[in-house]
């Protein structure tokens, strides 16, 4: 009986370790640390694939967003899209704001960036479309004025969400996160269950939850009307890193697909 018990215990331990190892192996890097070959660039005023001013760069194992080859910012909002769409997943990455904000960019873009999800395919965007129809996990840093400035917020270019059980048409909803400073690496996680529950996590704390992302509302301009059927619930789409006038770094970009 003792031998049988030990054998069963050993088998259970082996299966547990194997299961945990298998789960760990489910994480997949979206960024290989070397190049942007698995990504599409779309910058306002430019066609898909034109990485104007070398805005997005793969250097030192980091995706860097820079503007040193720009003149006037000229509302050249940009996004770097991973090559395939996702539906149910857990995304995690680290970001830090750095460098000097472009003074010709709109003032709200100071220490402001984000990651878009459930985005339209960038190849469906006209040259003059400014933002992708998507939902954003917005990243902000403190302005050094002692005022709170949470990060991990929700913004909705061309979309709406259901918040606290009701359709919420505000463009942005603040999270409950702490304020983090410029040049500080912050860990962000986004857990997406298709068209149902969405969770934002900052440095291990759940800071915002909502549901039912759907097409609707303003903020996006010069889009193809066929791409914006208002009221359509979004259950999948592309993931994109944002550029809007503030240098920022992204690293350790990982995804694990989930069961619905």
UniProtKB/TrEMBL annotation:
What keywords tag this UniProt record? Signal
Q: Which InterPro entries match?
A: AL/BT2_dom
Q: Which Gene3D superfamilies match?
A: Exo-inulinase, domain 1 (2.60.120.560)
Ranges for domain 3-keto-alpha-glucoside-1,2-lyase/3-keto-2-hydroxy-glucal hydratase come to: 26-256
Q: Where is the signal peptide?
A: 1-24
Q: Any keyword Signal?
A: yes
**A Pfam family matched by this chain, by name?**
3keto-disac_hyd
UniProt name for this protein: DUF1080 domain-containing protein
Source organism? Chitinophaga lutea
